[in-house]
Amino acid sequence: MENNSTTELAAMTLIANSGDARSLAFQALEKAKLGKFSEAENLLKESDEKSKVAHKAQTELLFSEAGGDNINLTLLMVHAQDHLMTSMLAVEMIREFITLYQGKE
């Protein structure tokens, strides 16, 4: 597979999985608002699995570049990285919100 195709596939993997992780985390927050903490935790676990897939794609790109491969920086890749970082922040904040809903400190 040529480098551009590999990079585009990695970008789409980042976008799709980090987007799913974010959506699942927001679903978990909605469950927590209703006091359904067990369901919220299950959704957060699903979110974590999606995040792991996105992180794996990012890590593979980083190792590839560190190994000397030239990774083309396209608007798609910038968008993918932005999507991943925004998703990571949202999930972290949602975990904190859920803790607050549970009344934990």
Automatic annotation (TrEMBL):
Source species, domain of life: Bacteria
InterPro entries with a match to the protein in the record: PTS_IIA_lac/cel, PTS_IIA_lac/cel_sf
Modified residues (Phosphohistidine): 79
Keywords: Phosphotransferase system, Sugar transport, Transferase, Transport
Coiled coil feature spans: none
SUPFAM superfamilies: Enzyme IIa from lactose specific PTS, IIa-lac
PANTHER family: PTS SYSTEM N,N'-DIACETYLCHITOBIOSE-SPECIFIC EIIA COMPONENT
Protein name: PTS lactose/cellobiose transporter subunit IIA
Organism: Streptococcus caledonicus
Taxon lineage: Bacteria, Bacillati, Bacillota, Bacilli, Lactobacillales
